[in-house]
Design a protein that fits this description.
Blueprint (H helix, E strand, L loop, with lengths): L1 H4 L33 E5 L11 H9 L4 E3 L1 E4 L5 E3 L22 E5 L2 E5 L7 H4 L27 H15 L4 E2 L2 E2 L2 H6 L5 H10 L11 E3 L2 H9 L7 E5 L12 H4 L2 H7 L5 E4 L19 H7 L3 E2 L27 H9 L5 E4 L2 H8 L3
Parallel strand pairs: 1-2, 1-13, 2-7, 3-8, 9-10, 10-11, 11-12
Antiparallel strand pairs: 3-4, 5-6
Helix pairs in contact: 2-4, 11-12
Length: about 375
């Protein structure tokens, strides 16, 4: 793991900038370093400005300065990796308006939860390409609905082709940060994600030390398989939630994040992607509380920390950083990201990459 962890050493020192006026003060944890460039990951692309998981969203993320584009990966009936947040596509495409697919609506147990809709494993790639993406949260991101019906569901290969083109055009290497979505669910369907993911990375020359790629998952077993069976060379990131645990895993996320759990994780992963409340929890009144020891403990175990998800709308911000009462209006998102970056995290996932790029200059 030591060799793969070298990939995570993040480059040159960033110039110090004046503190942002009005930024919420949060104590930095031991071991934090504002001199190291923090990673800005375009969460589902620039999903604050375009429907998520579309080539338009990924491209805008890169053009706004994101270091990485983040595609969530699911799989089609004919074994092609495509980019959707979930296997269920009724909430992010126009499939419900297509009478030819009406009979494919069904109810499944998705990681133990009953979900009704249309699922990628019931569609060939050719069929998915007849659909068009729609905004997932139109009540909050009404402007994004301007683009409903404009963009296809992209394949992972198309994202890698876009990465290559934009890296050349923008004269900087754009990274990819793919997530395997519900890998146990797909394994049980006979459509495992791991093999197609590794083959695609290798076919594109991206499963190697030094490639600008991270692979992430909420399931520890999935990451163990990628490390032990597939012997991937790129760094792996374990995603965690504030409650519960990985599907079909007797251990909770809280158990994995103890000092002993972090030490164990460091044997097969290189970083953590915690929910941001695990870095700075919120008080009962929805204001930001006191930072936890997670960043310090993870760094002591040799793990990088890149939390999710930072968004600009009041709906997603702590109470003291909201502006007005409109849940869809922008609040003080820059202040929030600066506050979190000062805890020593190594980067962040954001729907608004331009905000993240600016915030990291202000720490």
């Amino acid at each position: 793991m030591a060799d793969r962890r070298q990939v995570l050493r993040i480059g040159a020192a960033a110039a110090a900038a004046p503190a942002l006026a009005g930024t919420v003060a949060a104590p930095a944890l031991a071991g934090s370093s504002s001199s190291t460039k923090k990673l800005v990951v375009g969460h589902r692309g620039a999903s604050g400005y375009r429907p998520e998981h579309t080539l338009a969203s990924y491209e805008l993320a890169a053009r706004l300065g994101a270091d990485y584009m983040e595609p969530d990966l699911v799989i089609t009936k004919d074994g092609v990796l495509v980019c959707r947040h979930e296997p269920e596509i009724g909430g992010t495409t126009d499939v419900a308006s297509k009478p030819e697919f009406a009979a494919r609506k069904k109810t499944v147990l998705l990681d133990g939860i009953s979900v009704t809709g249309w699922f990628t494993e019931d569609f060939t790639l050719a069929e998915l390409k007849t659909l068009r993406a729609t905004e997932r949260i139109p009540a909050i991101r009404q402007r994004n609905t301007l683009y409903d019906g404009r963009f296809q569901v992209p394949t992972f290969q198309e994202v890698l082709d876009l990465r290559k083109r934009l890296s050349k055009e923008l004269d900087r290497e754009i990274g990819v940060f793919p997530e395997t979505k519900h890998p146990t669910y797909f394994q049980r369907l006979g459509l495992p994600l791991e093999g197609p993911l590794v083959r695609t990375l290798r076919r594109n020359g991206l499963d190697r030390r030094g490639a600008k790629v991270f692979v992430q998952s909420f399931e520890a077993a999935n990451l163990r398989e990628l490390a032990d069976k597939h012997r991937v060379e790129v760094p792996l990131v374990f995603l965690t939630g504030a409650a519960g645990g990985p599907f079909n895993d007797p251990r909770s996320y809280a158990d994995y994040l103890t000092p002993a759990g972090l030490k164990e994780l460091s044997q097969f992963v290189d970083g953590l992607g915690p929910e941001k409340g695990q870095i700075i929890p919120r008080n009962a009144d929805a204001t930001l509380g006191t930072p936890t020891a997670l960043v310090k403990n993870a760094h002591q175990a040799g793990l990088k920390v890149i939390p999710y998800t930072f968004r600009a709308e009041n709906s997603f911000l702590p109470a003291e950083l909201r502006v007005g009462t409109d849940p869809a209006a922008y609040g003080k998102a820059i202040d929030e990201q600066v506050t979190f970056l000062r805890t020593g995290i190594d980067g962040l996932f954001t729907d608004n990459p331009d905000v993240g790029v600016l915030a990291r200059t202000l720490i």
